[in-house]
UniProtKB/TrEMBL annotation:
EC numbers for this chain: 2.6.1.16
Record has Transferase as a keyword: yes
Role this protein plays: Catalyzes the first step in hexosamine metabolism, converting fructose-6P into glucosamine-6P using glutamine as a nitrogen source.
GO MF, one example: carbohydrate derivative binding
Keywords: Aminotransferase, Cytoplasm, Glutamine amidotransferase, Repeat, Transferase
Chief localisation class: cytoplasm
Active site, renumbered: K362 (for fru-6p isomerization activity)
Name the UniProt record assigns to this protein: Glutamine--fructose-6-phosphate aminotransferase [isomerizing]
Location of the SIS domain: 44-183, 216-357
Annotated source species: Monoglobus pectinilyticus
């Protein structure tokens, strides 16, 4: 009913709008006196110091959170991280021993492949750490540690608020590990915590500009194919933006690490092809500008996403979506929001069943 949907037409829209609240609920209880406090977590400094390798194992959008997680954990904690989809993990002879930490990410906590991967990791002697939304679910019960996301029930098949809270759980965990290892100066710790605390307001601001995204969607909802480009953290979010669009609009899309474009994909760019260029990683901004020029020269329509103030981009891109300034570490949380809205509006303009796309299930409990 409309009441269940909070007065909105679809659960997906309601859940997009709930993100500031969901992120605040996931973050705020874990910050106490200027430190990250993860209650009931047995990961001690001694254990963290001993970790030789981290695997992040998940499916679908949760896997895309893992791709962000690799960048964030490796840059902050300097431990090697491998991200792998759960259905591959068991069959690839993973290099796991009792010094390996396996992080499982799952909204439902019931995805069959992720459960199987968790059990295999345990059998090989790893310590397992779950980031889960559904309280008391299988993965939450069986993992050695669990860090809950407080997104609340998610009904739409295409995940939005669960993905966003999983991102914040990854930031919390990375900052926590760095804090426990004394790798952060007090100033840096304070800066990261402030960045986390500011996210809900920044995302609320972004959501107020949804009309702009709706307008862009209204011009391109008939596209045959859309490309999402980005580098490092932006590339990780490109993967999620592309999946979201495929899932609910049935438009073919691809996410590409922008520098890899010239090794093949650029052959597919023609007059009118829509390219979404994510340009929020500061030291790679100029590289992204060159990539935008390359696709523009082949006729692409470019929708760029950049941080406020980076107005040079208006010379190259056809549309620019600006994001509130924030610490680069947490920028993926802002970048994903216009991409969710874009998919939502495209699907809506095509008159599709947004909350229940064809062939997809909310939780995949078979292998
Ligand atoms: C399904 C859903 C996706 C989700 C994936 C993993 O494919 O449609 O939205 O990302 O499963 O689900 P989980 O519950 O493990 O996060």
């Amino acid at each position: 009913s409309a009441a269940e949907k909070g007065g909105y037409e679809h659960f997906m829209f309601k859940e997009i709008m709930e993100q500031p609240r969901a992120i605040a609920d996931t973050v705020n209880p874990r910050i106490k006196d200027g430190r990250i406090v993860l209650d009931d977590i047995s990961l001690t400094a001694d254990y963290i110091r001993d970790i030789n390798k981290i695997y992040i194992v998940a499916c679908g959008s949760a896997y895309h959170v893992g791709v962000v997680g690799k960048y964030v954990i490796e840059s902050m904690v300097r431990i090697p991280v491998e991200v792998i989809v759960a259905s591959e993990f068991r069959y690839c002879n993973p290099l796991v021993d009792d010094k390996t930490l396996v992080i499982l990410i799952s909204q439902s906590g019931e995805t069959a492949d992720t459960i199987a991967a968790m059990r295999e990791a345990k059998r090989l002697g790893a310590r397992t750490f779950a980031i889960v939304n559904a309280v008391g679910s299988c993965i939450a019960r069986e993992a050695d540690d669990v860090l809950y996301t407080w997104a609340g029930p998610e009904i739409a098949v295409a995940t939005t608020k669960a993905y966003s809270t999983q991102l914040t759980a990854i930031y919390l965990m990375s900052i926590y590990m760095a804090q426990e290892l004394d790798m952060l100066t007090p100033e840096l710790l304070a800066k990261y915590i402030k960045a986390l605390e500011k996210l809900p307001d920044n995302i609320s601001k972004l959501l107020e500009n949804k009309g702009e995204i709706q307008y862009i969607a209204s011009k391109y909802f008939n596209s045959k194919s859309v490309f999402f480009l980005g580098r490092t953290l932006d590339y990780a979010v490109a993967l999620e933006g592309s999946l979201k669009l495929k899932e609910i609009s049935y438009i073919h899309s691809e996410a590409y690490a922008a520098g890899e474009l010239k090794h093949g994909t650029i052959a597919l760019i023609e007059e009118g092809t829509v390219v979404v260029a994510l340009c929020t990683v500061k030291n790679l901004f100029d590289k992204m500008l060159s990539n935008i020029k390359e696709v523009k020269a082949r006729g692409a329509v470019v929708i760029a996403v950049a941080e406020e103030g980076h107005t040079e981009i208006e010379k190259e891109a056809d549309y620019v979506i600006y994001l509130p300034k924030c610490d680069e570490l947490v920028m993926p949380s802002e970048v994903v929001v216009p991409l969710q809205l874009f998919s939502y509006y495209v699907s809506s303009l095509k008159g599709l069943d947004i909350d229940k796309p064809r062939n997809l299930a909310k939780s995949v409990t078979v292998e």
